[in-house]
Amino acid sequence: MGNRWYKISRNIKLKRYTLHSIGAGCILFGLLYIFTTVFGWSLCPINRLLGVPCFGCGLTRAFICILQFDFVSAVRHHVLSVPLFLCIVIYLLIFAFDIIFGKNALEKTERFLSKKYMYAVYVFILLLSVYLNRLI
Q1: Phi and psi, residue 15, nearest 5°
Q2: Which position has the higher pLDDT, 117 or 32?
């Protein structure tokens, strides 16, 4: 049993920078949540300066709706909010799997997602989301 905890603590030390990034993302989302819900501010610099919504406009409000289990409103705020939220949850599950079992599944997943042909898929998804966000 002690050997298992030693391996987990060693894996945590090896992946500490990823943990720091996840923590910083959670803090940033918490700040965005407070500014959006309490103060009603829009923090998008592109929307404030140019008056044009960017690719990510509405994601914070959509994630807040997802956390409140209001998926219809989340899709109205941003079309890709539910799939993106699911991808984040899957990423965190794979990360937890890596820490507990000492595998490199996350590294393999990141290597696959960073292939050159995947960039065309990402651009297509981005353009499709812009088109669908304007329809809804």
Answers
A1: -110, 30
A2: 117
Q: Identify the domain containing residue 113 by its residue range.
A: 2-135
pLDDT tens-digit series, residues 73-95: 999 988 889 999 999 999 999 99
How do residues 17-37 score in pLDDT, each as one tens digit?
888 999 999 998 888 888 877
* Model confidence, pTM: 0.78
State how many domains the chain has.
1
Contact 82, 66 (CB under 8 A): yes
Q: Concatenated DSSP letters for the chain?
A: -HHHHHHHHHHHHHTHHHHHHHHHHHHHHHHHHHIIIII-----HHHHHHS---TTTTHHHHHHHHHTT-HHHHHHH-TTHHHHHHHHHHHHHHHHHHHHH---HHHHHHHHHTSHHHHHHHHHHHHHHHHHHHH-
